[in-house]
Amino acid sequence: MNKKVFIILLIVIIVVCILVGGIIKLKDGKTKDRDNTLIIGLDDSFPPYGYRNENNDIVGLDIDLAKAVGEKMGVEVKFQPISWASKEQELNSGNIDCIWNGFAYNPDREKIMTLSKKYLKGEMYFMLKGDSNIESQDDLIGKKIGVQSGSVQEADLENSNFGKQVEIIPYADFLTACLDLEIGGIDAVYTSSIYGNYIIKSKDKDYDTIPSYNISTASGSVIAFKLGNTELKEKIENALLQLEEEGKLEEISMKWLGDSMIKLQED
After folding, report:
1. How confident is the model over 19-30, as a mean pLDDT?
2. Fold of 124-211
3. What is the pTM of this model?
4. Quick one: pLDDT at residue 27?
């Protein structure tokens, strides 16, 4: 090997080493940043849990909870709007660390995700226009019922006997369903009382509500993690317990719900 070829090879080796070292350093930096960040997937049009205000900032009950938890854990919290219909894929792919957005517990979800303890209880009901002549669930037979696509309400309706007697209309989000309700495109929206009551009070909407029966399998709001990720689940639950003892959960509940309703519940 002559001197010229040797020098060229040496330069190539040095350049390769520099590039590899830079890539490894970049990856390490990204890993460290990712380890110190909690990425939360949510529907950003679902008040009071999480939605965009007049300044296009994401705000809400669960936003305040997550920020308080992040501060307690010493991590940065980022909110990632996702398609609710593909939330499981977002979670399983690692694009998000958890789903935290008025996410209702039901037994089917527990089979495919790791779920936190329940922290907020509501009930499911039907929202109607204020001038509707519908007075009971039975009066909705043969009618059009709006739900959010991929929601527990949609799944419960589809799996219930009552759901087989109505036309289920899925929407990208509940706000869109409510807009269609107002113009007469559907006869009712099947939703959580937490969401419904907030919309009625905060937006001064002329809606009526009627109770549902023999439909819902949901029993409270939870945080969802990739199946098997109990480590992150326990860290967040421990932070919530500390915040509960400090009175922070009650403070957030009073701000958004006007009542003390947030409490980490035993399984």
Report:
1. 47
2. D-Maltodextrin-Binding Protein; domain 2 (3.40.190)
3. 0.78
4. 45
